[in-house]
Amino acid sequence: MVGELRYREFRVPLGPGLHAYPDELIRQRVGHDGHLEFQIRWLVLRRGDDGEGGSGQVDCKAEHILLWMTNDEIYANCHKMLGEDGQVIGPPQESVGEAGALDKSVLGEMETDVKSLIQRALRQLKECVGTIPPAPLLHTVHVLSAYASIEPLTGVFKDPRVLDLLMHMLSSPDYQIRWSAGRMIQALASHDAGSRTQILLSLSQQEAIEKHLDFDSRCALLALFAQATLSEHPMSFEGIQLPQVPGRLLFSLVKRYLHVTSLLDQLNDSAVDPGAQNNSAPEELSGERSRLELEFSMAMGELISELVQAMRWDQASSRSGSPARSACSIFQPQLAGTSLGIPPAQARPSLRRSRQFRPRSEFASGNTYALYVRDVLQPGMRVRMLDDYEEISAGDEGEFRQSNNGMPPAQVLWESTGHTYWVHWHMLEILGFEEDIEDVVEADENRGAMVRGTLGLALPSWRWKPMTELYAVPYVLPEDEETEESEHLTQAEWWELLFFIKKLDEPDHREVLQILQENLDGEVLDDETLAELAMPIELAQDLLLSLPHRLDDSTLRDLLNCRVYRKYGPKALSGQLAYPSLLEAQKDAPLLEARTQLQESEDGARAEAKEPQAQCSNTPLQRLVEGSGPAGKILLDLEQALSSEGTQESKVRPLLLQLQRQPQPFLTLMQSLDSAASNRALHLTVLRILKQLVDIPEALLLPWHEAMDACMACLWSPNTDREVLQELIFFLHHLVSVSRDYAVLLNQLGARDAISKALEKHLGKLEMAQELRDVVFKCEKHAHLYRKLTTNLLGGCIQMVLGQIEDHRRTHQPINIPFFDVFLRYLCQGSSVEMKENKCWEKVEVSSNPHRASKLTDRNPKTYWESNGSTGSHSITLHMHQGVLIRQLTLLVASEDSSYMPARVAVFGGDSTNSLNTELNLVNVMPSASRVVLLEKLNHFWPIIQIRIKRCQQGGIDTRIRGLEVLGPKPTFWPVFREQLCRHTRLFYMVRAQAWSQDIAEDRRSLLHLSSRLNGALRHEQNFADHFLPDDEAARALGKTCWEALVSPLVQNITSPDEDGTSPLGWLLDQYLECREAAHNPQSRAAAFSSRVRRLTHLLVHVEPCEAPPPLVATPRPKGRNRSHDWSSLATRGLPSSIMRNLTRCWRAVVEEQVNNFLTSYWRDDDFVPRYCEHFDNLQKSSSELFGPRAAFLLALQNGCAGALLKLPFLKAAHVSEQFARNIDQRIQGSRIGGARGMEMLAQLQRCLETVLVFSGLEIATTFEHYYQQYMANRLLGVGSSWLEGAVLEQIGPCFPNHLPQQMLRSLNTSEELQRQFHVYQLQRLDQELLKLEDTEKEIQVGREASGKVQGREKEEEAEAGVAEEVEEEEENEDLYYEGAMPEVSVLVLSPRCWPVASICHTLNPRTCLPTYLRGTVNRYSNFYNKSQSHPALERGPRRWLQWTWLGRAEMQFGDQTLHVSTVQMWLLLNFNDLKAVSVESLLALSGLSADMLHQAIGPLTSLRGPLDLHEQKDVPGGVLKIRDGSEEPRPRRGNVWLIPPQTYLKAEDEEGRNLEKRRNLLNCLIVRILKAHGDEGLHIDQLVCQVLEAWQKGPCPPRDLVNSLGRGSACSSTDVLSCILHLLGKGTVRRHDDQPQMLSYAVAVTVMEPHTESLNPGSSGPNPPLTFHTLQIRSRGVPYASGTSTQSFSTFR
């Protein structure tokens, strides 16, 4: 199923080593659909290294996830929360009487005492007017605290007077009273989280509570809140430097957070149980819930706004904007190097391209593009390489040569290398033939002009996909289904705008409401009406134009960043970016020009100050604010007001109010302290102004904490002037004395160490420095509290945001919270604070003088660390924090150190100090250098970094290092938020997937509804990512998690077989295939059913992996071509998780079952092959309909067919293979007819060949090759070769494991070459004979003229010599002087290694069976062949000799007819040139042929088209053949007459098929015996093949009849052995080793039928010598015969 079942419960995997476990039911509510929902707490379990259970599992109760679940989801996932009746057990009801077990009378008395104590404490507190509280008051509070710790009395303390008492105690100036109030609060809050939250909420909602609370009281409440939220949201931000937030702002955040959580609880409790009694009307309940939702949204927006300002994210966003996320599917990975905004062709221009072929960028997946290239590409076309692959680089061009079923499948002749190389389909771009290629520059110019002229800048919709890709993004609504643009704002947009309306001051608020009422027909606008108001867009745009002038600075920043302003703002209407210009204006003058009243006052002040400024020189402050405009004028006015005698508060306070609204000038003033130390006058002026501001109460409301880093930088700097440092210490001491919040901030910033270093530098002569350090040190506990509070607040807000995402996901209701997208954007993009040096490393160690190691990190270039040791032994070792990747490591040196300055530095990395073996860099230091960068942008984490000084300048021994700077990565919140977002998403969707799987398991028909369910969920996540997630990384993380959590488990469940062995999806696909024919009627139920199935399968498979190959370094692969044909490895390579693997496995099982049923039913039928091809074609069409043109499912289809064929018994498989070989033979011969019938035969042949490709790599391929070889030999020898033979072999070549058909065609080519050589040889012999004849004539003429006489004895000797020579050459020259037209003779030399020969006894004797004019040619060819065998240039090997056979064909002239006959028929017909009648018995005796072979030849000759008649005679066995009289029966008088005997087809059930089975069984026996002998260790497959072949040669061999039937003697190839090994692997008899797949071993004991065997060649020492058979092609024209009669004769001319 989806997860695991442990302890009878369901566990959901959340990540590596993490599981979620349902622990407790918290509460219940009624959902939007009216059904009950239950909130379940899921605990997060961490799994130890030991894997399963036991001590390795730790329950982290601090980590939990709250999830609302339906009844069905709890039924499927939380079994322990179900009762015996299967219903959910509700949450436990609180029982007041259980705790303490107090009697009602006693409890009543105690309640009376508590009420009297509260009244007494209030009276005593009012009477306490002195500084020291009276003892009775402290005793009363102590007793109240004791009563508060009793849980049954909790209700009494909810009296409002208790809150008044706590408020007075917390605001008391006495510490003991405040401490007692804290004790009482802790006692009240010790019962449960609800009581604690209620008390905190009640206190925080008191008016003016911040005015009554001092630092200690506020810290007491903050500590209580930290304790309350510590276990609620355990989230770690380790490694992220959070900003320093003062206590006042923290307390405000706490109040807002408590208010939001209170409203959220009210929302969850507002849904009443349907069975409960409720007298309220439904309209009232709906109105109340709407009011709560609006109030919650506004409060959540306030919290997010204030939290963003406290985290200083708004400042980071104003400095750098992020581009908007491109609109694309979050579930489909994008191909590398492509983008949806700009076509890839523009990103990387190419020189040439095709006009008619589509590029890879137009396809949604690599598999689809690969299939397109495979189908379109033709030999001779030009291609271009798109990716780097082994020896071929991207951009290389070449010519496509051929392809086959190997891997890689495409062979290309590359211009860059000059030779061919095999690559994959998806790596090629088709350029086409040379005439199809155009110059891209001219075409781009024309096309660009057309686009600019007609389309402008508009680009096509991103949802457009090529027509070949079905449902590329199914969950996205098509263009025509989208709703038209509305004229009103959405509710989320209106509520966001309403948020800013509520932030206006009272006069502005009333004015805006008046405007709204006037434009909405005078409708009365109360809070309920405002929430449901339909706001027109035009009116909203008018409001957005007026709002910026009515808001303060912080609210204005929120407005500029919100979605409604970016969409409908003033500059968004004109297509420009709205907020960058405004923010730029903020930097220079924080929007003061937008406020006319302030401008008037500034103009007056500028006029008054114009004359004094002209008289005096510029001061440092004037130079600072020069060019700042009105913002700088505020600082000058502030300085002037503070420096005047008798500071006038009337002048200072208006300026402070301005700075509160626009604090940028104040921050600029403080940040000037971080400038160069040479600005001494400026620093003193700024510090003087700041000290005076501290004394003004209104100035404490300024954001001092945001610029406290500048003070720390000035404090840390070693170059700071002493007077400036003293003034800075005075200012900081005064500031922390007024507000201890800033002492806490200084503690967090490390001020204690900075002050200590300053005291050490100036020998303790800094006034108030020691006191400041003590104050900062005392706030260590508070600093820890502030950090914990900041973490808890941020974690709580993240959890609430995740809860809203979950509710949005569950209810599909819009998220109406203002700034929700802003908060998510900041969480996904990260913080603006960079990691400092001391955050990167844990400690620094040096090789010598460790007491001076601190000088390396004191940031003082005047101090240094000096080593002490020998040359090359100096080193600095950094121990890095876990996971920190160094962005830059810099060494500070000084040229003044002379020989102490380093000259060569090496950097090493390792996991420990003992394994520093990896050299990261080696740097030579120039003598003039001051900063030496050692490392930059490391992408690997090294726990230990060691810097080794190899050599010093001028041959120095010791070295000096002035400093060490380490810059780590910029920490972000994205990793933390991604983990939480993925956890919640994974838990939600895995729980839902389990519930849906449970429904499908109970009723398979519910699988039809899965498509709509998935479509809705995926569409929801896509829309959420488009609206709220800022970048592609966040969107892809959400999409991947959603897909893995929802789709992957569902696919795993619906593809897993149940008890009957059928999976739900397999059952559905079976139903689809059964009703496919009926679905052609669009009005039928079958059509609707098929449509649902297709939508489901399209949705499940539409996400495809990126086709980019893995890096060669990570996964090295061998050079050259991989010849493996393993479809399963190809189909699953690179697929996302296990979805495609499970789907392809299910489809394979369905196909295998379908094909198996078909084979069982129809394997004996005569039309088996056509029906099987039709069935296979239907399966292919169904695969394309269901899954699109994806290679994985096409391969699964082939694997399914192969699996069904493997299940066939041997004889059945042999019968099937013979039927396919027969069908191919019939289609090839039928295609020779031509015309429409011939084209139909070619089409049928193509379908059959596509089906036969499945045989590749199977055991059935061996028998198929055997039968195909037989039929192909008869075709080639009977009717001759044609182009179709080669084309067929090129397509189904992998189906022939021994490649015998290919060798047969090659042997024909070799025979043709020999025939051409023989022709030249004949011409040479003729020339020699003619020359000899001329010499003889000359000798005769010379002899006649001679006067002498020759002795008789000499004449006799010469005569004898001539006779001997004539006897030697008589046979060869028998037809040399033949007077008639010589026939054309072509000899085919056939090797028995590849050509099937039924029996070697059917040989032809040229002396007795051929006429003289043919016999001489045959003899000359024999002599030619023997001489060619002895030629030194030929290969050396066993000598071959010719043996003539009856195989072959001839063309004979018989009257006006041309008879096409076999060689046997030619010999038979030539007998009638001398005889009128020939008996069959004499023909058998003369030829030595078998009766069957002779009768097979006689049959066509005696048919209606033949020239002979067979007369049966009693005294002559077999009958007598005579030439048919033309007057007896009508027959063709002229033209071609085909009389070649028809093809004889074999039967697998005959003796030959059984002999093949015996050979297979014998090989199986040998394999099993050899593997048994090697035991469990096994044997390498290559060694196994060699040993089997050796045992076949030496050991027990098959019987003699088996040898005769094979036709190749005892030959056994390695392919036969590998075929048997595959068979045994499929049966489970042999197994592969898991760690070494090439090792095979014996698996189980099975019975292998072993035939009776005998020795193949008894007494022989080796195999038989190779034999070579040949046949004849004879051609003659018009051969005259001696007979002068008019009887028709047979003349052979071919």
What does this structure look like?
With 1694 residues, the protein is of the alpha+beta class. 50% of the residues lie in helices and 12% in strands. The chain is built from 59 helices and 34 strands. The strands form 9 sheets. Strands 23, 24, 25, 29, 33 and 34 form a 6-stranded mixed β-sheet that branches. Strands 1-2-3-4-5 form a 5-stranded antiparallel β-sheet. Strands 10-9-8-7-11 form a 5-stranded antiparallel β-sheet, with no helix packed on it. Strand 27 and strand 28 form a beta hairpin. Helix 3 (135-148) runs parallel beside helix 5, helix 30 (741-748) packs across helix 33 and helix 42 packs antiparallel against helix 43. The longest helix has 46 residues, at 1300-1345. It is elongated. The N terminus is likely disordered.
